[in-house]
Design brief:
Layout lengths: L2 H4 L13 E6 L3 H11 L6 E7 L3 H11 L17 E4 L6 H10 L3 E4 L3 H4 L3 H9 L2 E3 L8 H8 L3 E10 L8 H5 L11 E7 H7 L5 H9 L6 E7 L6 E9 L3 E8 L9 H15 L7
Parallel strand pairs: 1-2, 1-3, 3-4, 4-5, 6-8
Antiparallel strand pairs: 6-9, 7-8, 9-10
Helix pairs in contact: 2-11, 4-6, 9-10
Length: 285
């Protein structure tokens, strides 16, 4: 799976001035933020046409509260009304969201990037039909630089993630290995492995690691440390890349939303990616 196959670029939509009919699958913290912004016309050329959510009645109430009048539809119906679906849902249902869109040669913007590793058939389907999977930068930084370095030779990529304790609670890896983090008073390293392993063990936390791996040298060569850190209040990621074109050392500290597993910048990253689809100026790879 290569990064250029699943991110950036859009020959049909870019700079055409055509309206991109857009749906959102999932109405949690990120989905609600996007619905509010897009329904208010935040991005020229992006028209919000539908929402899909696990609880349609609850979703309708949320949309009414934020002044968004688009219909709430079953996931299976989104393909009939949308050119693009933004996935903001649990990773387990990514195939249900993505497969109909890709089969129709349409587009899916995927936030649950880790789920792509366990569903490689989605990329195959996109190749067959001309559909596209778009992975936005999300809570990370520097993916343009990593993608550029990958055009040459990257020797190694390592990421160190530090999260407040409540941002890691409930992770399957912690439960499977009986790692107790409640009540710790100093930083504790809870994981050291590959991005692929992290995607399985921390499916709600480390989509950023998978996005980094897809931009660079793949999920089995990208190394990751995860620390539960009671001394921090922000989700912090440090990325270190050694390549034949540059040595990269970057750190980002993301302010969490009311959901401690999600940074505020994630929804903003989706808006920025949508703005690039057919904007008159596109900055960055």
């Amino acid at each position: 799976m290569t990064s250029d196959a699943i991110s950036g670029g859009d020959a049909q939509m870019r700079n055409t001035g055509a309206t991109v009919k857009t749906a959102i699958a999932g109405l949690g913290t990120i989905g609600t933020t996007l619905a509010r912004q897009l329904s208010q016309g935040a991005i020229s050329g992006i028209e919000l046409v539908a929402i899909a959510a696990r609880d349609p009645q609850k979703a309708r109430a949320v949309l009414d509260e934020i002044g968004c009048g688009v219909p709430v539809l079953p996931i299976a119906d989104l393909v009939s009304v949308a050119d693009l679906v933004v996935e903001c849902a649990p990773a387990a249902i990514l195939p249900e969201i993505a497969r109909p869109m890709l089969a129709a040669g349409k587009k899916v913007m995927v936030l649950s990037a880790g789920a792509l590793l366990s569903n490689p058939d989605l990329l195959d389907l996109a190749k067959q039909t001309g559909g596209q999977i778009i992975v936005p930068t999300g809570a990370l930084l520097g993916l343009d630089a990593v993608s550029a370095a990958a055009e040459g030779k990257i020797e190694s990529i390592r990421m160190v993630t530090r999260k407040p304790v409540n941002g890691l609670l409930g992770a399957p890896y912690l439960e499977e290995h009986a790692i107790e983090i409640v009540g710790i008073t100093e930083p504790l390293k809870v994981f050291d492995g590959t991005a692929r392993e992290a995607a399985k063990g921390f499916p709600a936390n480390l989509n950023v690691a998978v996005a980094l791996s897809l931009a660079g040298i793949g999920p089995d060569e990208t190394r990751l440390e995860i620390w539960a850190d009671p001394t921090v209040t922000r989700n912090t990621h440090r990325i270190m890349v050694d390549s034949d074109s540059a040595r990269i050392d970057m750190t980002i500290e993301n302010i969490p939303t009311e959901n401690p597993k999600t940074g505020r910048i994630t929804a903003l990253s989706v808006l920025a990616a949508l703005r690039k689809l057919n904007g008159p100026l596109r900055v960055g790879t």
